[in-house]
Amino acid sequence: MSLVSVACGGVTAFEGGRAFTVVGQPPPPPPPPPPPEKKRVEVTEKQIVINEKIQFEHDKAAIRVESHSLLNEVVDTIKKHPHIKKIAIEGHASSDGGDDHNLKLSDRRAKAVMEYLVQHGIPKGMLTAKGFGETKPIADNESEEGREKNRRVEFNIVEQDAAKAAGEGQ
């Protein structure tokens, strides 16, 4: 029987054995791994970044149930990063509504988030909460998309043990 050498083929001899020919195509390469799933909560040098929004009841400071799992991840992240010593929770609003109303609402929402974290095991002494209303926009308030981006809660790291942070390879 005669076999033809193709692609990855050729004649190969093993010690003490006779030569044989490998025929056929090599298997296809494995598919590339899927892109890493974007984490909902990430720690950077100066922030705990949430890649989803905390949802509140309309025009209220009540946190919606669908945001509890996100806030639970924030709690877990804080607990897994003991080098973080103090966090400032900031509430922000879009330009919809009156300035004073937005300032008070964003403050109540920041405090509601802080209370949630405390109720789930984060020491109150490491947290502060303050609303800034519409004073620190990150997007244009002229479009609905921009206003939506401006309605947010941020977790800024204001104090940390730098030696431990460097040791964690951040």
Describe this structure in words.
By secondary structure, this protein is α+β, with helices and mostly antiparallel strands. The protein has helices at residues 68-80, 99-119, 144-150, 162-167; strands spanning 10-12, 20-22, 41-43, 47-50, 84-92, 127-131, 152-160. A hairpin with a 3-residue loop joins strand 3 (41-43) and strand 4 (47-50). Residues 1-6 have low confidence and may be disordered. The strands form two sheets. The protein has a five-stranded mixed β-sheet. A two-stranded antiparallel sheet has the order 1-2.
Main beta-sheet annotation: 5 strands, mixed
Query: Which word captures the global form?
Result: elongated
The low-pLDDT segments are: 1-6
Tally of individual helices: 4
Radius of gyration: 27 Å
Helix and strand arrangement:
Layout: E1 10-12, E2 20-22, E3 41-43, E4 47-50, H1 68-80, E5 84-92, H2 99-119, E6 127-131, H3 144-150, E7 152-160, H4 162-167
Parallel strand pairs: 5-6
Antiparallel strand pairs: 1-2, 3-4, 4-7, 5-7
In short:
This protein is α+β, with helices and mostly antiparallel strands and 170 residues long. It has four helices and seven strands, in the order ββββαβαβαβα.
